[in-house]
Amino acid sequence: MKRKLSWLILIFAFSLFFLYGGPAGAQQKPIVIGGSLPLTGVWAETAKVIQRGYEFWVEETNAKGGLLGRPVKLVIYDDEGKPDSAVKLAEKAITVDKVDLLLGGYPGTAARPVMPVAEKYKMVYVSMGGHMASFTQGYTYSFGAPPLMGEWWFLGAFQWLETFPADQRPKRAAVYIMNNPVGTALLSSIDEYTKKLGIQVIINEKYNLPLPSAEPLVMKAKQMNCDLFISGGVFPDGVMTVKAAKALKYNPKAYFQGVGSAIPAWTKELGEDGNAIVSGTSYHEKLNNPSNKMLIKRVKEKLNMDSVDTYFGFSVAWLQTLFAGVEGTKGLDQTKIRDWLRKNKVETVAGTFTFDAKGLPAPFTYTTQVVDGKIELIYPADIRSHKGIYPKPAWK
Amino acid sequence: MGGIYALLGVGFSLTWGVMRVINIAHAGFGVLAAYIAYSLLEKTGLDPLLSLLISLPSFFFGGMILHRGLIRPITKARETIVASMVLTFGLAIVVENVMLWIWKADPRVLKPSYSGTAVFIGEVGLPIAQLVGFGLAAVGILLLYLFLNHTHTGKAVQATWQEKEGAALMGINLQKVSEIAFGLAIAAAGMGGVAMAMMYTFDPPVHNFWLIYMFLVVIVGGVGSILGTALAGLILGVITGLCMAFIPYQWINVLTFGLLIVVLLVRPQGLFKTGV
Predict the structure, then answer these.
(1) Which part of chain A has CATH 3.40.50.2300?
(2) Distance between CA B148 and CA B141 in Å, rounded?
(3) Residues paired with residue B127 on neighbouring β-strands, in sequence order
(4) ipTM exceeds 0.85, yes or no
């Protein structure tokens, strides 16, 4: 009898433990978020930063009890940066793995073709997207939170120039843009703001990548006395142009660069020659919003990192948006999440967003400038980490 | 720019002409030499030109070993050109991934002390790094030309290329000559890679771009013609420079590769295919 009683007590105790005493959410089926990133190939370095950002935020979420009280699990496939692989893997994640949420991809060339897949299966897709063209196709389930929008890239830079008295601003611009969708996307803000600020566009040319030689471009800008130089390219041609400008002693008042100068390699490889170059971004580790401050604090505590890469911040912001939709609707119904995101403010490390019908926040860019080898925020004034340097000092 | 592509192209042309081997990995070895020059400059401050004293012998002997281990077996294939393209395509992927593993995917810039300086002739500025790169290309092509035309081994390479059986009957060791030619080609690729890095940024996959222009100068110049490749390189540079001055930049590739089509239609053997 005593033995029977002991067994009963033991079974009762185990039952109590599994019902109430287990780790939080451990007995719950996880919420699975699936998708792909280019974990191998030329985009792998940045993709791994994004992966770390995703994993970090999932761990943070799980440590706080998960999403809807359930643990979150990531499934990330390797698409090698190939758009067709990204599409196949998105289909696989949705139809075979039956994931609960779709993961944002990278780069834009791989994220863009996933947007119609998300639309087809009615799955909310939060990513960088593939510039404005991808957000004007009528997709209703895709969100850029934040996007990497070429059309907005120089908005902040021109708004920063606008803060100077008219007589001190540049008067003549040389615009050289790489001849591809990313490069030509830059033209809309350049066109709008050069007109607005009364800057005459003296040279407006496109070039195909790889740029054969930067010297003729720079020489032409110098001979035409252009005091605003806009180099709308990527790292390789951006570096060639800086080297040519230095060698040919061309010193414009302001030097805008496309995507090349906002990556660590710029300052690492160019040293002080990379200083004073102006660009844009939609996330920066020095953003002073509460969400980003918390992220930087947690990254320091948990990973012992003093800084985070831009793409780490992007990936956190994308998950924050997706999770806000899930928590806001208290469920995983994709259409309800989509509609909730359309109607509510979302706080992310990249800023607070409200989304329009295209799935985009209001046009914005944070203006960056390389100062003493560091990428600093110089505009808008309320978020700046350093005063902008203008006019650009002569090359040393 | 054209001269540097010519230097990269002469080695490519040599293996194509002598061995009927199209080495898709050729430019990959150029990028590898650029990385070695970069690392030596960063770690020891050694000028990229001096780094060639280390990398060129290594590349020459490495090329010979590679020939013995990989290239020689496929030269016995019925379709040597096709087999070599398949094999060296795989080799290019291996070289690229080794570079990705060692140096990562970040783009690099070779910045010797004279980078960012120029010589001005009136209003025209000539960046010194580019002049050094061009000088390196000129010296490399000249050395290769002198070797092929004024040394016994060089003449043996030419003989092998012109009449393989005849050269063998004259007592030329075909395997040895092919090994030397392949070693020289890889060393020239290394020299060309460092010259390229004086002008351009580089990362592991960039060899694919370089390869396109190498094909261009070799086909325009004539496969196997050292002087032809050099002149084709110069023509490419002049056309690019003139186009950039007088027409919109986005037309340059159309014009350059349009020239390739015209040459293939008019002189499929190349503009200068009259000998080495």
Answers:
(1) 31-149+288-353, 152-281+366-383
(2) 11
(3) B118
(4) no
